[in-house]
Amino acid sequence: MEHVYSPKENFKEISRKTGKACVCFNLRKTARLLSQIYDQALKPAELKGTQFSLLMAVAGQDNTSIGKLAQPLGMDRSTLSRNAKILEKKGLLTIEEGEDRRRQSIKLTEKGTSVLRRALPLWEGVQESLAREMGEERLKTLLKDLQSLSQWLKSDF
Amino acid sequence: MEHVYSPKENFKEISRKTGKACVCFNLRKTARLLSQIYDQALKPAELKGTQFSLLMAVAGQDNTSIGKLAQPLGMDRSTLSRNAKILEKKGLLTIEEGEDRRRQSIKLTEKGTSVLRRALPLWEGVQESLAREMGEERLKTLLKDLQSLSQWLKSDF
DNA sequence: AGCTAAAATGTGTATATACTTATATTAGAG
DNA sequence: CTCTAATATAAGTATATACACATTTTAGCT
């Protein structure tokens, strides 16, 4: 790969190439677009896609700490902390000091549970649309590739 | 798909399932992680991955407007406007009024060009690592699926 | 017990992102 | 030519995100 990138004119071509090939760009772009679809679909439950995911994660790990949650979400602790605070303000979860007073204990509230229950069928609706559009097979491949990629990113890099 | 989601206990199982299956969550998660890799790699050029992409887009479409740029990037105009302003402040591009004084004309500066030139081999380095790790084939499939998905999201939904 | 290192989180700051609303400018109907 | 509708963008607001640094609390060594 011994290119020489000099004259400004060449950038037109290079730009096209990087746009097509850049995994980061294409991943972010698709995530941007898809997030809007999920947000739209979840509107009746007054949740955004990201908030749905966070609530679900809390539901699955009831009563854990910020750090324990952040790990599998591949998210910085500070990010998680702030996102959680928004849901706390909405009354969907509680954040309290645990035994170890460094650790915060996060729990779903009743309201949080019922919001999740309302959101679930909405989420399934989008998922099914996607499956219909892409086909089960490709969807499965996509998910698998995303998961193995993020697995690798967390461990090796 | 006629589930009954009621008792709180079931949410543990549902949480696991949604976490595995949610395209939006997995896309965002991978994008988060991968963005950090690109940001890290581009540090010597003092660029973040997103800024690299934006600069490249400008290089490919020199002298267009915000709106024209936003379209293929799948990005809201207001987002693009703000992201561009940061690069303008760094002296990497200029934003000026065009003929039509509603339209802003965006151009790469000399400095912007030279920063891109410095960044390009860094970008290639990450790309090659990814290709080595995932294998050319899977990488190609991933890119193709992302692109057709975002294509669909922009048109149909 | 007392001090130091490790652990968990929060805060400050900066960027990325979209939606809604406001503003300015042009184009088009009459 | 004038008023109105369409176009392009900016600004206000809220969320999502990470990194560096500060704070608090626990654990472990001596």
Molecular structure report:
The structure is a homodimer of 157-residue chains. The first copy, chain A, is 70% helix and 6% strand. The first copy, chain A, has a domain at 47-155: Arc Repressor Mutant, subunit A, CATH 1.10.10.10. The first copy, chain A, has helices at residues 10-21, 23-42, 49-60, 66-73, 77-89, 110-134, 136-155; strands at 93-97, 104-108. Chain A is globular and about 60 Å long. The first copy, chain A, has 157 residues and is mostly helical. In chain A, β1 (93-97) and β2 form a beta hairpin. In chain A, α2 packs across α6 (110-134) and α3 crosses α6. Chain A has 7 helices and 2 strands. Chains A and B meet through α1, α2, α3, α6 and α7 of A and α1, α2, α3, α6 and α7 of B. The structure holds a DNA duplex (30 and 30 nucleotides).
